[in-house]
Amino acid sequence: MPLFSAFDGQVRGPIIYALILQSPFLCPLMNRCPFLYRIFSVRPSLLLVGVLGFEVLFLGAQVNAQNNPQMSLERTQLMAGMHRLDVQLALTPEQRQIGLMWRKDMPQHEGMLFVFDQPSTQCFWMRNTLIPLTAAFLEDDGTIVNLADMKPMNDDSHCSTKPVRFVLEMNQGWFAKRQIKPGFKLNGQIFVKRPN
Question: Are 95 and 182 found together in one domain?
Fold first, then answer.
């Protein structure tokens, strides 16, 4: 799963609280109902309780949604020499953020290919990921730049050694068992060079 910024529910509530207190224009309801603004200005604890209550509900829904693994993503076929891979495509930021979280197992010939819009240094971690994985960081033509073994339920960061657009996650050891190393080229329609 890609490593994203720390702007999450742990800081979002207090920031919203501070912004609302500083500027009623950020909250149209307060602007239309001056008595609410007076109440929350005098009793900011009421606003804090309201914001925190919203945060609990929002984050609870988010956790419930993310507790379910992504099983119905679009798929594509890749070839690693004579080995055919059936991989899910993580194309959107939301799909890439969830990745293979909550999967309890994965068939040996399956994986997930993360597709980014632009090449950059890609860093992955294993938060909420239950199975050990190996990440292959791939050039645009499918050539493996580097491989990283990743432990389940671990926040250690594993990064590409150069900017890439593709990252393929497979069961840990899949590449090593087949003696596939950096420099090996995977084939697939998705690696066809894009027009400039």
Answer: yes
